[in-house]
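Suppose a colleague, Dr. K., hands you the sequence of a protein chain of 428 amino acids and asks what its three-dimensional shape might be. Before reaching for any lab equipment, you can write down a predicted structure in C-alpha cell form. Begin with the sequence itself:
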Amino acid sequence: MSISLILFGTFIILLFLNVPIAISLGLSSLAAMIAGGIPLSMLPMQIHASIGKFTLLAIPFFILAGNVMEKAGISSRLIGLAEKLVGHKKSGLAIVAVITSVFFAAISGSGPATVAALGAILIPAMINNGYEEGMAASLMATAGAIGIIIPPSIAFVVYGAIAEQSIGKLFIAGIVPGLLIGAALIIASIIVCKDMPIKQNKKATGKEKWAAFKEAFWGLMMPVIILGGIYGGIFTPTEAAAVSAVYGILVGVFIYKQIDFKEFVDLLVESSVQSAVVLLIVATASVFAWIVTTEGIADAVGSAILTISAGNKILFLLLVNIILLITGCFLDAISAFYLFVPILLPVAIELGYDPIAFGVVMTVNLAIGQVTPPVGVNLYVACPIADIDLKTISKSIVPFLAASIAVLLLITYFPQTILWLPNLMKIK
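The predicted structure, expressed as C-alpha cells, is then:
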C-alpha cells in the first residue's frame, strides 16, 4: 500500500506543480522503485521493452504523414470541397468545419493538429460570416477531437500495443463512432446557430464542385490507400504508416508542389520532436504501468471497482466513463491508456465486454478530454485563433460536449454500434 501511495501521490503532486507528464510519470515511478526496493536496473529494461516494439513504429510515420499533408495545403483543399458541397446552407460553415475535421482526422490522427490546420482558416471565416467567436472556436475544438477516433489514430496504435489487440480491427471499429460524433456535432451546431445572423454563401455550380473535388482528390486518397491497404491484406498498420508518409511526401513535393527542400527538412525535424515527445511518454508511462501491475495495485483497484459496481456491467461502464472523463481533464490519451488499461480492461473482459469495443470507448472518453478544461489541449489551440479566453470557450463548448457525451453513452451501452463494421468486414 505504501508503494501505491508514493507512486500516485508523487505523480499527482508533480502534476499540480506543472511538471511535464512524461517527467511526472518517470519521477514517480523512480520514487516508487526506490521505496519498494525494486532494483533500478529494471528501469532501462522496462523502457527498452516498452518502446522497442515494431507496432510503435507507426507513431513517427503517422506523425510525419500528417505534418506533410498539413503543409501540402490539403486542409485548404478539403475546406474548399466541403464549402462547395454544403457551404450554401444555413449553418453551412459549421457543417463544413465538422465534415473537414472528419476528413482531416483520417490524415493526421491527431486532435490538436486537426484544430490547428483547419481552425486557422475556418474560425476566422465563421466569425466573418456572423458566427459568435466562442461558438466557432468551441465547435472547431470539439470537431478536432475526432482526430483520435477516426483511423488512422495514434491512440488506437498505443491501446492496441498495451492491450495486445488488433490495431487493424481498432481502426475499423473507430469509423462509426467518429461519424456519429460528427453527425451529433452538426445537429448541435444547427440548433446553436438557429438565431445567429449568419450570411449564406451562394450555391456552387456542378462545375465548381468538380473543380474543388479534383483539387482535393490526392488528399482524399490518403485514407483510402491506408485503410484499403490494411484491410486488403497488402500491408500491416505499421507498414501503412510508412506508406502514408511516403505518399504524403510525393503529393506535397511533386503534385501540390507546396513543399520545398528547406520545408521538408523542417518537417522532418518537427516530426522527430513530436515523435520523441510521444515516445518519451510511452517509455515513462510503461514503467509506471509495470509497477502498477507487478505490485498488485492494478488487481486491487480492479477488485475494488468490481466490488463497487457489484459485478453490474452497466454500473461498471458508468464508473469507467466518469473516471476517464475526469482523467481526460488532466492527462493525454497515451498516458491515460498506460495508467488505466491494466486496471480496467481485465475487469471489462471479466464482465464479458469486448476489448475492441472497450478500447474505442476509452478513446472516445479521452477525445472528449481534449476539450475539457483545465488541460483541454484543443481549447488552447482554438482560443488564440478566435482571440478569446478559456472562460469564453468553456461556456460555448457545453452543447458540443453534451452532443459528444450522448454518443459516448450510446456506444458504451450498445457496443454493437462499434463492432458491427469490423464484424461485417471479418477483420481479425
